[in-house]
């Protein structure tokens, strides 16, 4: 018996599998060999072309004429003697021999210039004009025709490679077409110049009215042309996308009378076309394999449409950028039809188009290029352009749901602030307040990408063979489903928001560290107050120390100090609960700043105060003492007396929330006194001002306020702010926050809310038996009656006026009484006569 071989026989499936693998390997090897051979062949052809070019370049230039050197310059006397001996001197006479010897020393007929017909020795004649060679040259160099050479395969010899080439024969049609093209270009340039000159000359000979009519006619023609091209593109974009190039060519309008108007119309029209035609995805360039593969006719048309659309969109953006650069540099180009004064209007329209494309096409190509172009314009000296860009980025931050565009914008803004050494406008940083960031990854390790798939060792250690197979199939299926879902992952969105917020805090902390005295500090403090709940715990201690030092320095305004306080308490009410910090100094700062609010100041600080009170008293009610709460309630009620109605409503609503959070504060509604001492309203420490020894008498005064909502809140608070019963507020007022009430009853639009009732149409007539004075009888129904009475009785009126000035005026209730003792009988009769005639004329 033969020993059994240890090698297992392959099964039929394995044989089929290995045969397929072998076939694939053979096919790969064959393709690899073909690629290698093709590569070698290309290298040899390249080397051969280089050798041919080198050989042609190495050939010495062949001169048209060769000149022999003079015998006297290089031949010695022995050579001259040999030359003379070689001559047949026995057949020549002495004179001929001397002539031949002299001719031998000069240029012979073989070496002279055959192109000249003049004799050799003609220049030696006396009195003849000698012309130099450079004078014979033409004024203009003749055009040398460069003939095209076709390189052939070289011939290999013992000496080496001999290059071979022939000249390409040009057909007469080609030469004539080249000449015609050059002539057409020259003719086109001349026509443009002639048209501009002719238009200028024709406009000079017209009157102002005719010029305006001619201009309006041209503009109407251009409008019709723009409308025709735009409607053609929008109706069938795939077929008529090439019309965009024709429309873009109208941006170079050369007619000075309509150039500015036409260019503005073309810019706006192209902007609307791209907004309508652009797809809802980013167009990527095709790879080499995709270009070579055969596709359907519809697919090929779509590819051509996308390629042309992207190229024309790129050119359009470059044109807008160039218009803005010309405006910034105040640079007028040669043959430019637009004046320097008109650059501002063109640049404003270009910026408007870019902002519209920024908001309408955030998913399309070149969106980051638009961001890079518009962010520096946020700090522009032109107020209109700067506000336009800032508003556009605010809208972009609000509508950006994914966060990619916001991250790109914040990065560019950070670079701009750093490059300009923090000397930017505050509006640039105020745009960051519109960022839609509600949640971020606070841990540094959480931002790192997690392992999605197990490595080989983990799979082998934990799972069996069948389980690994199923696990691999599940991972592949999950990956395909994630790609087919076409929706952004939540983790990816959180990652983008985290990076954006890190960039924002980097800008803020740089300014606090290096430029804390700049004009950007209010915007920085407002931004920190807005995003304070998202700050990492690692920065809390340093940030609190910096803010406390800023407040204690005394260099901040009221609004800046309020922003610092709001930032501190926003931090402490969020993640800062774990910190054992008693912010008593910040309570004292806010308590000291409350009397600075009044009706003469702006109401912008009231919103910040209401937010601070919400975080300091309502949310942190467990960390606030009763003495501190009573002091704030008393100062808020005093503050509501000298504020505008909308601010008074908000402050009273905050007082109501404090009374609900601290029920024992209702002791302030009684006249009894607890403890010893008196209330010290001028003391800035809420803990030691003895607020328990006073009462809220301000509520009784506010019940007679002219605003109905203020009267309602004052009556509600004076009864203890009950939640039920007759003294309770209605649902609309009780469920609203103080900030919402302040905004609802705002006086920003200079309107009274709620509106004032109209006065009654019928006036009440009060009958009185008291004798009426003479001045009460004068009734002027309109201004014309007044002037007629004044002009007719001027002397009488002046006399009465002089008497009244000298009269004794006594104040009695709400009207003045003139003493009758100073009026004599004659004057009294005269006044009665004037009044009687006036009443008769009225009747």
From TrEMBL:
List GO molecular-function terms, semicolon-separated. chromatin binding
Q: Which InterPro entries match?
A: ARM-type_fold, CCAAT-binding_factor, Noc3_N, Nucleolar_cplx-assoc_3
- Stretches of Acidic residues bias are at 180-195
Does Nucleus count among this protein's keywords?
A: yes
What Pfam family does this protein match (any one)? Answer: NOC3p
- GO CC, alphabetical: nucleolus
Region span, Disordered? 163-215
Tell me the domain of life: Eukaryota
User: Where does this protein reside within or beyond the cell?
Assistant: Nucleus, Nucleolus
Q: Where is the major localization of this protein?
A: nucleus
Checking PANTHER family in the record gives: NUCLEOLAR COMPLEX PROTEIN 3 (PTHR14428), NUCLEOLAR COMPLEX PROTEIN 3 HOMOLOG (PTHR14428:SF5)
What family is reported? Belongs to the CBF/MAK21 family.
What name is this protein filed under?
A: Nucleolar complex protein 3 homolog
Q: Source taxonomy lineage?
A: Eukaryota, Metazoa, Chordata, Craniata, Vertebrata
């Amino acid at each position: 018996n033969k020993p059994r071989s240890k090698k297992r026989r392959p099964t039929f499936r394995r044989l089929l599998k290995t045969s397929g693998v072998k076939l694939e390997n053979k096919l790969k090897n064959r393709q690899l060999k073909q690629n290698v051979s093709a590569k070698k062949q290309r290298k040899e052809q390249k080397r051969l072309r280089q050798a041919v070019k080198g050989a042609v370049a190495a050939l010495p230039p062949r001169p048209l004429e060769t000149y022999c050197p003079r015998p006297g310059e290089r031949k010695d006397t022995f050579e001259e003697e040999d030359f003379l001996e070689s001559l047949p001197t026995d057949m020549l006479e002495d004179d001929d021999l001397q002539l031949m010897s002299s001719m031998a020393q000069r240029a012979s007929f073989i070496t002279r210039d055959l192109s000249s017909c003049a004799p050799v020795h003609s220049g030696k004649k006396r009195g003849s004009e000698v012309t130099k060679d450079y004078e014979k040259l033409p004024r203009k160099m003749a055009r040398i025709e460069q003939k095209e050479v076709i390189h052939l395969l070289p011939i290999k010899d013992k000496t080496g490679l001999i290059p071979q080439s022939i000249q390409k024969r040009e057909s007469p049609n080609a030469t004539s077409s080249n000449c015609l093209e050059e002539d057409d270009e020259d003719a086109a340039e001349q026509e443009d110049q002639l048209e501009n000159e002719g238009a200028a000359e024709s406009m000079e000979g017209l009157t102002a009215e005719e010029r305006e009519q001619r201009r309006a006619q041209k503009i109407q023609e251009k409008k019709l042309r723009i409308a025709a091209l735009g409607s053609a593109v929008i109706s069938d974009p795939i077929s008529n996308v090439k019309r965009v190039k024709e429309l873009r060519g109208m941006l170079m309008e050369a007619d000075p009378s309509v150039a500015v108007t036409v260019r503005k119309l073309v810019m706006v029209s192209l902007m609307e076309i791209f907004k309508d035609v652009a797809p809802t995805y980013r167009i990527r360039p095709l790879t080499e394999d995709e270009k070579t593969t055969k596709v359907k006719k519809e697919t090929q048309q779509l590819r051509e449409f996308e390629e042309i659309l992207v190229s024309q969109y790129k050119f359009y953006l470059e044109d807008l950028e160039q218009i803005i650069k010309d405006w910034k540099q105040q640079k007028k180009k040669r043959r430019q039809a637009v004046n320097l004064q008109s650059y501002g209007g063109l640049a404003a329209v270009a910026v408007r188009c870019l902002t519209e494309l920024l908001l309408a096409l955030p998913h399309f190509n070149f969106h980051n290029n638009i961001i890079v172009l518009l962010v520096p314009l946020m700090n522009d000296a032109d107020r209109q352009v700067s506000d336009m860009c800032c508003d556009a980025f605010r809208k972009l931050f609000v509508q950006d749901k994914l966060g990619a565009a916001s991250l790109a914008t914040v990065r560019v803004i950070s670079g701009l602030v750093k490059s300009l050494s923090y000397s930017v406008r505050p509006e640039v940083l105020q745009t960051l307040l519109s960022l839609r960031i509600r949640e971020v990854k606070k841990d540094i390790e959480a931002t790192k990408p997690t392992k999605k798939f197990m490595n080989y060792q983990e799979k082998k250690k934990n799972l069996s063979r069948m389980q690994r197979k199923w696990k691999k199939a599940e991972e592949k299926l999950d990956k395909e489903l994630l790609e087919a879902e076409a929706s952004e992952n939540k983790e990816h969105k959180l990652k983008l928001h985290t990076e954006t917020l890190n960039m924002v805090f980097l800008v803020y902390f740089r300014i606090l560290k290096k430029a804390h005295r700049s004009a950007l500090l209010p915007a920085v403090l407002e931004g920190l107050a807005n995003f304070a709940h998202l700050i990492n715990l690692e920065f809390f201690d340093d940030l609190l120390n910096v803010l406390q030092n800023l407040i204690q320095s005394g260099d901040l305004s009221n609004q800046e100090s309020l922003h610092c306080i709001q930032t501190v308490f926003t931090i402490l009410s969020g993640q800062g609960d774990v910190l054992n910090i008693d912010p008593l100094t910040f309570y004292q700062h806010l308590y000291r700043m409350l009397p600075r609010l009044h009706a003469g100041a702006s109401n912008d600080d009231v919103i910040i105060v209401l937010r601070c009170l919400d975080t300091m008293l309502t949310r942190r009610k467990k960390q606030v003492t009763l003495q501190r709460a009573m002091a704030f309630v008393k100062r808020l009620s005093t503050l509501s007396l000298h504020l505008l109605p909308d601010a008074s409503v908000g402050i009273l609503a905050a007082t109501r929330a404090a009374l609900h959070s601290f029920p024992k504060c209702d002791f302030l509604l009684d006249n009894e006194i607890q403890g010893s001492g008196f209330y010290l309203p001028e003391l800035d420490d809420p803990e030691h001002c003895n607020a328990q020894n006073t009462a809220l008498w301000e509520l009784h005064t506010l019940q007679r306020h002219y605003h109905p909502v203020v009267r309602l809140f004052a009556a509600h608070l004076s009864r203890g702010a009950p939640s039920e019963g007759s003294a309770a507020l209605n649902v609309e007022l009780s469920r609203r926050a103080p900030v919402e009430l302040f905004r609802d009853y705002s006086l920003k639009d200079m309107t009274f809310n709620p509106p004032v009732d109209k006065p009654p149409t019928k006036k009440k007539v009060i009958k009185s038996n008291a004798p009426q004075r003479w001045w009460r009888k004068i009734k002027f129904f309109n201004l014309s009656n007044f002037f007629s009475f004044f002009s007719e009785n001027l002397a009488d009126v002046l006399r009465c006026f002089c008497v009244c000035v000298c009269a004794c005026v006594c104040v009695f209730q709400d009207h003045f009484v003139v003493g009758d003792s100073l009026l004599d009988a004659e004057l009294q009769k005269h006044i009665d006569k004037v009044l009687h005639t006036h009443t008769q004329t009225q009747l």
